[in-house]
Specification:
alpha/beta; 10-stranded mixed sheet; 6-stranded parallel sheet; 23 strands; 51% helix; rod-shaped; binds GDP-alpha-D-glucose
């Protein structure tokens, strides 16, 4: 409305000015037309009355002539008529012939012509016409017309012209305002879509989005520019920041102050266990917990997780919440309770017997049961309800962790459409053909596409995901911006390589390396200078533990000089032991170790020591620091944090990392010895190379790897995702604001 008035008033004033300026022109024009008209009229009257007048004059009937004149001047416009026989005489005149007209003056008017004169009554038109009579050659007829009607008509015309221009102004304004409003709305929705990174670049037929083909090139350029500026700023900012828990906390305080942040994961960061009459608090050694803790402490958010500890129920309040960390509470855990059937179907069943083998190409067949799927859907729904009930605002930031919650983003989106949902998939994403065997393929993809940002460790996994979406569900994939538009909602698919805390916790690297070497060797009955290799894994078939042992066997076959001089200690934390495939795998691993040891032990130290038990993080680090090499041989792994932990543990710049090419970490740590775990000969050669590698080469490789892990640590991983989410929220708030302000 304001916009309309701002536009219409000046336009009206301009047109009124034009009307005012053109009035004299219109006046002059109409006057000229009317004078010409009256001239012609006067000539016609003069011609018509000459004959009867001459007859009357010839008969000297002057009184009749005057009556004749009076009769003619009954005409509305003919004001008076006069006749002068000669300049010297008096005019024979009708009523109203103005006193100013004298016969002797007519000579001054050169005998004939038209004149305008002004009397008190108004303007008059005086026409003098010579008589065409031989009897009175000097006779002149004077015809006086009243011109006041011209003034009246001129006034009227002026008024009409003015009305016309005002009407024109109103119509022009109305049309202009309507067009302006329509195109402004188009622009605004275009700009809003542009700021969201969609809309203007949509292909025709891509839903009820604005399609303004003429803006496409501008939009594309703008989008590219914004993206470049953003990524420039982000790279610059990121590189300038020294990423620590404190800096992450400080940045998030600034960027996300007052925001409602919710984390959802299957595993909880603090587990309460009952030990007799005592309650113990355990913090699971997990990369995910390490990464998420600083975020939660910074934002005082809520962490929703499965309450799996034996004393979890007795430690929560009536809302199933508990404030943590126990010594200095900064955020809340909201525990979700699962029945045994739910846990069996959702966690062991669909997540770990279905999705886990499906996403890891480790040649273990996924098992899909509709009963597991039903529990998976139900548990995801349960967590979605928990998110909604814990959300203090209508647009919280929700961080959904891992493959246990593929359906959760969509379920949350249905309840909280304005939420910013970041889902992070910690395991690989396979190629479309492999993923396609999942009977609930489309539901899983649609569920994940409820996210605002979907994160994977590597670009390869992002590509696989986008290819899968492109292949199987109705969605628009933009490979330039790496976004997927599905059901009118845009999801950005991004690479966020996870990492570990840097520097590692002081307690983990406190014990000097020589002491670690000595103690670990003593503990395992190995001679002081014995060569030691380590592997630290959950006892999972994706970790390639059997392929690792096959490589050790091959090393001893090809290089028998290492028999009795080299031992490999495998720490294998029990995991998912309720699943048959894992039990089978453990049995196979144990049998293989027995066979290889049997073959090469020969009275000395065994080639392989298998420790199927959970170790404390401090013990794990002691093994890392004691070892000459660490072997990570995953058959397929999202990232593999063990590789980074080994690097972090080696502040003495020694030790060699042998790393499977099928881990995300191999993209970031090219200074390790990269191997194909399926190629036993290649792995054996790498083992031998590691065992004989000179100290300075070990140092050069280790320093480069340590620099990388230090720079790209877990705080940066978390910070990048949260900063991207904060930027996304700023953009969408700006778009909403601009839209609301002008629409
Ligand atoms: C998933 C993805 C991705 C192992 N044994 C013990 C123990 N660990 C610790 C290690 C390390 C962690 O567990 C294992 O992390 P990984 O990354 O190697 O592998 P997953 O558990 O499969 O994790 C993986 C990760 O999520 C993060 O996104 O990298 O690709 O599969 O921290 O040190 N810790 C203790 N005792 C053990 O016996 N304390």
């Amino acid at each position: 409305m304001k916009l309309s008035l701002r536009f219409v008033l000046p336009l009206m004033l301009v047109l009124a000015g034009i009307a005012y300026a053109t009035a004299p022109l219109v006046d002059g024009l109409t006057l000229r037309w009317f004078v010409k008209d009256i001239d012609m009229r006067s000539a016609l009257i003069a011609n018509t009355i000459q004959e009867p007048l001459q007859e009357l004059l010839a008969a000297d009937r002057k009184t009749r002539a005057v009556e004749f004149f009076n009769r003619i001047t009954r005409d509305e416009r003919l004001y008076a008529i006069g006749y002068c026989a000669s300049p010297a005489g008096t005019a024979l005149a009708s009523r109203f012939l103005p006193d100013e007209i004298h016969c002797h003056d007519l000579e001054g008017w050169r005998g004939s012509g038209e004149h305008l004169m002004q009397i008190a009554k108004g303007p008059l038109h005086v026409a003098v016409k010579p008589m065409e009579s031989e009897a009175a050659p000097a006779g002149r007829l004077v015809l006086v017309h009243d011109m006041s009607f011209i003034v009246r008509r001129s006034e009227e015309t002026k008024r009409y012209v003015f009305y016309f221009f005002m009407g024109l102004a109103a119509v022009v304004s109305l049309i202009t305002v309507i067009i302006a409003q329509l195109s402004w709305r188009g622009w605004m929705s275009g700009m809003r879509a542009l700021l969201r990174g969609e809309g203007l670049l949509r292909q025709p037929g891509a839903g009820a989005q604005p399609k303004l083909p003429e803006f496409k090139p501008i939009a594309r350029d703008l989008q590219r520019l914004i993206r470049e500026l953003e990524s420039d700023a982000r790279t610059r900012d990121e590189a300038q920041i020294n990423w620590t828990p404190e800096s992450l906390r400080a940045i998030l305080h600034g960027e996300l102050r007052g925001e409602d942040v919710i984390v959802v994961s299957n595993r909880e960061p603090y587990i309460h266990q009952r030990r007799g009459d005592r309650i113990e608090v355990q913090q699971p050694a997990s990369g995910l917990v390490t990464a998420m803790e600083p975020i939660m402490r910074a934002c005082s958010g809520t962490w929703i997780a499965h309450g799996s500890g034996s004393a979890d129920r007795e430690t929560v309040d009536k809302n199933d919440r508990i404030a943590v960390p126990p010594d200095n509470p900064a955020y809340q855990i909201r525990r979700v309770w699962l029945t045994a059937e739910e846990e069996a179907g959702y966690y062991y069943g669909f997540a770990n017997e279905g999705l886990w083998p499906l996403c890891h190409i480790a040649h273990v067949r996924p098992t899909f049961r509709s009963s597991d799927w039903a529990q998976y859907v139900a548990v995801n729904r349960k967590f979605a309800q928990a998110v909604v009930s814990e959300s203090k605002t209508k647009d919280p930031i929700v961080l959904v962790q891992d493959y246990h919650f593929a359906l959760l983003p969509k379920m949350i989106r249905e309840e909280l459409p304005d939420a910013t949902i970041i889902a992070f998939w910690h395991i690989p994403w396979p190629n479309p053909e492999s993923f396609a065997i999942c009977p609930w393929r489309d539901e899983v993809l649609a569920g994940m596409l409820g996210s605002s940002i979907l994160g994977f460790h590597t670009q390869f996994h992002c590509n696989n995901f986008v290819d899968t979406v492109d292949r199987f569900i109705e969605a628009r994939v933009d490979r330039e911006s790496f976004t997927v538009s599905h059901g009118g909602k845009l999801t950005a698919v991004r690479r966020y390589p996870i990492s570990i805390a840097w520097p590692p916790e002081a307690g983990l690297v406190q014990k000097p390396v020589p002491d670690c070497r000595r103690d670990i060797r003593q503990m395992n009955d190995l001679p002081p200078e014995h060569k030691l290799g380590v592997g630290i894994d959950r006892l999972d078939y994706t970790k390639g533990i059997m392929e690792r042992f096959r490589a050790i066997e091959r090393l001893l076959e090809l290089h028998p000089e290492w028999i009795g001089r080299f031992t490999f200690v495998q720490v294998a934390a029990p995991t998912r032991s309720g699943i048959e495939e894992y039990q089978h795998h453990e049995a196979q691993v144990r049998a293989m170790v027995a066979r290889i040891n049997d073959r090469f032990e020969r009275g000395g130290p065994p080639p392989i020591v298998l420790k199927v038990e959970h170790h404390e993080p401090r013990e794990v680090y002691e093994y890392f620091r004691a070892a000459d090499l660490c072997f990570v041989s995953s058959l397929h792994d999202g990232m593999n944090l063990v590789a980074k932990e080994f690097v972090a543990a080696r502040d003495d710049d020694r030790g060699v990392l042998i790393l499977s090419q099928f881990t995300g970490a191999s993209r970031e740590l090219p200074e390790s010895l990269i191997v194909n775990p399926y190629d036993a000969d290649q792995c054996a050669a790498a083992l031998n190379m590691a065992l004989i590698m000179p100290a300075d080469e070990q140092r050069d490789r280790m320093r480069l790897m340590r620099d990388l892990v230090a720079e790209f640590n877990v705080f940066r991983w978390a910070g990048r995702m949260l900063l991207d989410a904060a930027a996304m929220r700023r953009r969408s708030r700006l778009a909403d604001k601009t839209g609301r302000g002008e629409a």
